[in-house]
Specification:
By secondary structure, the protein is of the alpha+beta class. The protein has nine helices and 22 strands. The strands form four sheets. It has a seven-stranded antiparallel β-sheet with strand order 1-7-6-5-4-2-3. Strands 8, 9, 10, 11, 12, 18 and 19 form a seven-stranded mixed β-sheet that branches. Strand 6 and strand 7 form a beta hairpin. It is elongated and about 100 Å long.
């Protein structure tokens, strides 16, 4: 019986003879290398059968290097099928059917990849027989050690983004997520001091409640703070909360602007904006307006709420051939009016036209109704069909009931909270637009929401219009 070299009485001359052993390089997908069906580290190689002719038995000439030479010759001849027979202990044997493949981690070396599980690969290593027997006896301990060392692996996999964005979005390459970003309000004209985070949250809450009360069919989804980096200096830098140490963190809880100094001594400011996420009660609904040669108007008027939402303020009611009637827009407008809701336009030609940011002065950035009226009129003149999306307040309205109904734009993929109860009816003083081609005093129109209003374009400042007390002409597009 071979003597164990770890015993203190063993001399170098009495060392156990060298044998060719198995070295597990890659485990199976189910860790079967620790069972008796697969070869294990420390198994003693007794026989190799390569292809239909080559057969080599222990002892192997020149050990590992000699076997690697044989594997190299066989791989060159494209004889890669191999059967390995090993011994465990005295009378226990196991076999592995594998193929010869190059070892990427070692140049000019080959390993064996299992036919049954391509993840499993083994190599060869010269060891003493006593070392092999010790490894075989310590299998349980090595299994526990391997369990503690094994880590889950991650990596990147390719994904067909373009195809998915084309197929699985109701509006290709455009999301259905709706949000508005509110910057903290400057508390002085020099914009060196800003109101705290609670003030920004309160303004977000007020904007949402006011939108719902005016008849915009939206519901709260989530709110979060967003950190925006900016360079600050002078008075602004001296007035901000310093975040230079852990002791300063308690002062940042309600601060909307804090600063720190980078490695170059530049004062960096962090603005804590608030992003309000909201959703439409009934999803978005696409309406395609097709035009004919004899169409002289689209048959509806647009206006804008104080919160920045574009909505259909009037629809012609006595023309069955108008594009608004043929597309089903008139019927949907009537349903919105009966439900005390506004028919809010969310997209024009697949472009979102919803408000998206509130500046530090408190102004809401939204789309100009005059330019939108011009675009719609150009579609009419060019006889090019136009698709608009509107926000629904009831998902049942998205079910097609006739030829005039288009498909729903947003799939019903998430459950929304209960509908918000409106505190009042829509504002009765909604304005109606004067299209660019109609002179400012040439004609008159009475809207569906009450008194007549005169509006004038004002490109200076943050307001889009000035209001007067005399009547206005037609604002139909």
């Amino acid at each position: 019986m071979p003597m164990d070299r770890v015993q203190p009485t063993t001399s170098p001359d009495q060392k156990s003879p060298a044998v060719l052993s198995i070295e597990c390089l890659k485990g199976t997908s189910t860790a079967d290398e620790w069972t008796g069906d697969f070869l294990q580290t420390g198994d003693i190689v007794e026989e190799l059968r390569i292809g239909n002719s080559g057969r080599f038995k222990s002892p192997f000439k020149n050990g590992k290097s000699g076997v690697q030479k044989v594997l190299h010759e066989s791989f060159k001849k494209k004889e890669t099928s191999i059967l390995v027979r090993v011994r465990r202990g005295v009378d226990e044997f196991a076999e592995l059917q594998a193929c010869i493949v190059p070892n990427d981690s070692q140049k000019k070396q080959y390993m064996l990849r299992s036919i049954a599980d391509p993840n499993y690969a083994v190599g060869f290593l010269d060891r003493s027989e006593s070392d092999c027997l010790q490894l075989q006896a310590s299998r349980s301990d090595r299994m526990v050690n391997e369990l503690s060392r094994t880590r889950l692996q991650d990596g990147y996999v390719s994904y067909r983004w373009e195809k998915r964005m084309q197929e699985f979005l109701s509006v290709p390459f455009s999301s259905c997520f709706l949000s508005i970003l509110l910057l903290p309000k400057a508390s002085d004209q020099g914009t060196s001091h800003y109101n705290d985070l609670e003030d920004t949250l309160a303004r977000a809450n007020a904007w949402l409640n006011a939108s719902q009360a005016s008849g915009v069919p939206i519901v709260f989804m989530n709110v979060q703070t967003e950190s925006l980096l900016t360079k600050i200096s002078g008075k602004t830098a001296s007035s901000t909360v310093n975040a230079g140490s852990l002791s300063d963190l308690s002062n940042l809880a309600n601060a909307s602007l804090y600063g720190f100094e980078d490695y170059h001594g530049v004062d960096i400011g962090v603005v804590r904006a608030v992003r309000l996420w909201y959703a439409c009660l009934g999803g978005e609904f696409a309406i395609e307006i097709k035009l004919r040669e004899d169409d002289t108007k689209l048959g509806f008027a647009i206006s804008r709420t104080e919160e920045g939402f574009i909505f259909i303020s009037s629809v012609i009611d006595d023309d069955e051939n108008a594009p608004s009637t043929r597309s089903g827009l008139r019927n949907l407008y009537k349903e919105a009016t009966n439900s005390s809701m506004l028919l809010v336009v969310s997209r024009v030609a697949n472009q979102k036209v919803l408000p998206w940011i509130v500046s530090s002065t408190g102004a809401i950035r939204c789309f100009d109704t005059v330019s939108l009226s011009q675009k719609l009129s150009l579609h009419r003149h060019a006889k090019v069909p136009i698709t608009i999306h509107v926000l629904l307040w009831d998902r049942a309205l998205a079910v097609p009931s006739g030829a005039n109904r288009s498909r729903a734009a947003t799939p019903s993929v998430m459950q929304l909270p209960p509908e918000v109860q409106l505190s009042r009816l829509p504002d009765e003083n909604q304005i109606q637009l004067l299209p660019p081609e109609v002179p400012c005093g040439s004609s008159r129109v009475v809207g569906d929401h009450g008194p007549e209003i005169r509006l004038e374009r004002d490109t200076a400042g943050e307001s889009s219009f000035r209001f007067h007390d005399f009547a206005l002409a037609s604002n139909w597009v």
